[in-house]
Write a structure and sequence with these properties.
Radius of gyration: 24 Å
Number of strands: 24
Distance between the termini: 72 Å
Oligomer: single chain
Number of helices: 13
Shape: globular
């Protein structure tokens, strides 16, 4: 039975990073705002993605440091891994932050509806609650922020037992003896690094010619070498042809240029990409257009149906939480009339990978920059020349900066090593402010810090590197 209709200025469908941020910003701007979430506030990122994986990876990083403490003059007993406690801590972290988001929304005056939202024949939104009841939630504007989910192998669905998605890998009951990870993007690489650190025999299978296939070639080569040094077997230009359950695990048939091979393993983790969550939204009752499961939007997040907007993973690559958050703010401000006409903002979106070691990038890869046909200046600086990196025993890695030779504009930057994911924002700010290489060379970096390597990479682009 349909409950009494409620009218809002903005209705956000999906409570992930993009959705809840859009709702908070809309409420800040005085718009009467509601949000619908069918599972957990914070979405996949907070509950089953970004946050819990980083909690587990922090445990792995700490374990690695303890094992290497002898090199720092600290004698410790061999550490023991309490895997259930690691997993439990990651769940506690996620739950704490999810409760925090609920508090923020309540404080901002955003009304939260629990249930599944879908458009009815009249293009009005219905919310179906767990008890089967429905209510109509009317709003002048709707924002689709339904996110994405893991893509399965075409011939083998996830079963939660032998064939894992990232959710299964996050909630395993024990450390597997062996694991085949299909897909060497950020998700696959991070889980490969995590389980290998805990002692799992890991094989990483990637269809493209390099790990982190969308990344800079220098970074990918360095990461592959490091993965192999950590005991991870890497297969590139390799495709999974079949997955067959056995008495003790899974048999994986892999085809590559080097020939066919069969891998025997306890589990397979599939990390081959994400699918937009557009099913069961009733989009057929609207003029919203989609392409291969992704909602089509303009630069401002507007769909073909007036008043319906979309943000985040459901609109396509890059599928990153911070991109969704930014889009949520832009759409809310557009609805409120703060952003009128003109070109939509296109900020540089950093990408981070939290395996071992960390890597981060913003802007173009060197290959992408060269494909434009413009002359470049490329500076590289190895962390072996950085005093802080040497002092903390983490001098494996480098910083790479790519500039347009004619204008001095920063086109791209890539970092591998300690604090890479924290330092990349410096280059992102520089790109956002349209800083030139000349301005970056005049910037004073504190000493001793790993961030000095960023400065050195800029100097190196002009042949002025001091510590190379």
């Amino acid at each position: 039975m349909d409950k009494q209709e409620t009218v809002f200025d903005v209705l956000v469908i999906g409570g992930g990073p993009g959705g809840y941020v859009a709702a908070l910003r809309a409420a800040q701007l005085g718009l009467r705002t509601a949000l619908v979430e069918r599972e957990h506030l914070g979405g996949i990122c907070l509950n089953w993605g970004c946050i819990p994986t980083k909690a587990l990876l922090h445990s792995a990083d700490t374990l690695r440091r303890i094992r290497g403490a002898g090199a720092l003059g600290i004698r410790v007993a061999p550490p023991e891994v309490d895997f259930p406690a690691m997993v439990a801590r990651s769940r506690t972290v996620a739950q704490r932050l999810s409760r925090g988001i609920a508090g923020l929304l309540k404080k901002a005056g955003v009304q939260v509806f629990e249930g599944h939202a879908h458009f009815g024949p009249d293009a009005q939104v219905r919310v179906r609650h767990a008890d089967g009841s429905e209510r109509t939630v009317a709003a002048r504007h709707q924002v689709l922020a339904t996110g994405a989910r893991a893509r399965a192998l075409p011939t083998q669905p996830f079963d939660g037992e032998r064939v894992w998605s990232y959710r299964d890998a996050l909630s395993a009951s024990r450390v597997p003896a062996s694991l085949v990870v299909v897909g060497a993007g950020a998700i696959g690489l991070e889980f490969a690094s995590f389980y290998a650190t805990l002692g799992t025999q890991v094989t990483l299978v990637e269809a493209m010619g390099q790990v982190l296939p969308g990344g800079d070639a220098d970074v990918s080569r360095f990461m592959q070498k490091t993965l192999q040094q950590d005991g991870i077997a890497v297969r590139t230009q390799a495709r999974v042809q079949q997955v067959e359950h056995t008495a003790n695990g899974v048999r994986v048939g892999v085809e590559s240029a080097a020939g066919n091979e069969t891998l025997e393993t306890e589990h397979v983790l599939v990390a081959i990409g994400l699918l937009g969550n557009t099913e069961e939204l009733g989009l057929e009752h609207t003029r919203v257009q989609s392409d291969r499961g992704l909602v089509t939007v303009d630069a401002w997040g507007a769909t073909a149906h007036a008043g319906i907007h979309a943000i985040g993973d459901v609109t396509g690559l890059p599928m990153l939480a911070h991109k969704a958050m930014h889009q949520g703010i832009v759409v809310a401000e557009r609805i409120a009339g703060l952003r009128r006409g003109g070109d939509a903002p296109h900020p540089a979106i950093p990408a981070c990978t939290y395996g071992h070691p960390h890597s981060a990038a913003v802007g173009l890869t060197e290959a992408q920059a060269r494909a434009r046909g413009q002359a470049l200046r490329v500076g590289r600086f190895p962390l072996e020349g950085n005093g802080k990196a040497v002092a903390i025993g983490e001098a494996s890695g480098f910083v790479k900066a790519i500039f347009d030779e004619a204008s001095g504009a920063l086109l791209g930057a890539h970092i591998v090593g300690p604090e890479a994911t924290e330092m990349i924002q410096g280059f992102a700010i520089a790109m956002g402010l349209e800083s030139t290489e000349a301005e970056l060379m005049e910037t004073v970096f504190p000493h001793p810090t790993v961030s000095e390597s960023m400065h050195e990479s800029v100097l190196a682009a002009h042949g002025r590197g001091l510590h190379i």
